C-alpha cells in the first residue's frame, strides 16, 4: 500500500509549486492519525464552522519566555505522571500523557484565536516535539501542521491508557461482521465523496494553474498580495483534504480489516481515485471496489 508515500509526494510537490507566489518555502509534514474520522477535519484553530478562507500566519515560533505560558496539567491527567518540568517544559512523542497534550492543544488554539482577534502576528509558543523533530524544526512548522501533530499525539496517548486499550479490545471482540461491513462501507462512501474535492483543490495548486493566475493579474501589488493569500488558502485546503483522506484510509486498514490491493491510486491526469481492492473481516470477504458503498446511518 503506497498511499502514505503518494500523499507525501503530493504535498512536497505542492510546496514546491507555491514558490511561484512566495520566495520563501519550507518543508511540511503529513501527520496521519490512526482513528477513523467520518467528519471533516478542523480547518482553522478555534473555527466554529468550516472556515477555509481565513487569513493565517504562515510561520509560527517559540516564545522567548518558555515559562510564561508553559502547558498546565489538566484534570484528565491528574492520575498520570507529568513528563515536563519547569526547566524543560517540552513534551515529546511517545512520552507526553493525554492531559498535558490536551492542555497544550487548547492553549495553542486559544492563543491563536486571541492573536487573530487582536490582528497580531502569531508568535505562540510550542511545547510539543513530534517524533523526528527538534525544537528548531517545530518552530518552523506551520500552525495547522503543529495543531494536527498535537491532535494526533493526543489520540495516540489516549490509546495508550490501559482502560482505553481494554475497552478497545472488548469492542473489537464484540464487533460483528455486519457492523464491520456497515462501518467500512460508510468509510468508503466518505472517501468517494472526498476525492473530487481533493482533486479540485490539487488542480487549483498545480504549477500551471499558479502560473496562469500570476500571469492574469499582472504587476499590481495589491492583486499580487491577494493572489498570495489565495494561494495560501488553497494550500491549506489541500493539506486539510489530504489529511482527511489519509485518516479515512488508515481507519479502513485498522482493526480486523485486511485490505488486498490499493484503496487509492493516481490516474494518468494525476488525480486520486479508488483502486482495485478487496476487504475482508476476520478472513471473511466483505467488500470490493466493484461494490456500491452507502452511508451508515445507525
How would you sum up this structure, described in words?
With 298 residues, this protein is mainly alpha-helical. The chain has eight helices and seven strands, in the order H-E-H-E-H-H-H-H-H-H-E-E-E-E-E. The chain has helices spanning 3-17, 98-117, 135-140, 143-160, 162-174, 177-204, 207-217, 221-253, and strands at 91-92, 128-129, 257-261, 264-266, 272-274, 277-281, 284-288. The strands form three sheets. It has a three-stranded antiparallel beta sheet, with helices on one face. Strands 1-2 form a two-stranded parallel sheet. Strands 4-5 form a two-stranded antiparallel sheet. Helix 2 links the parallel strand 1 (91-92) and strand 2 (128-129). The longest helix has 33 residues, at 221-253. Residues 1-5, 10-68 and 72-79 have low confidence and may be disordered.
Summarize the structure.
This protein has 298 residues and is mainly α. The chain contains 8 helices and 7 strands; from the N terminus they run αβαβααααααβββββ. Helices cover 48% and strands 8% of the residues.
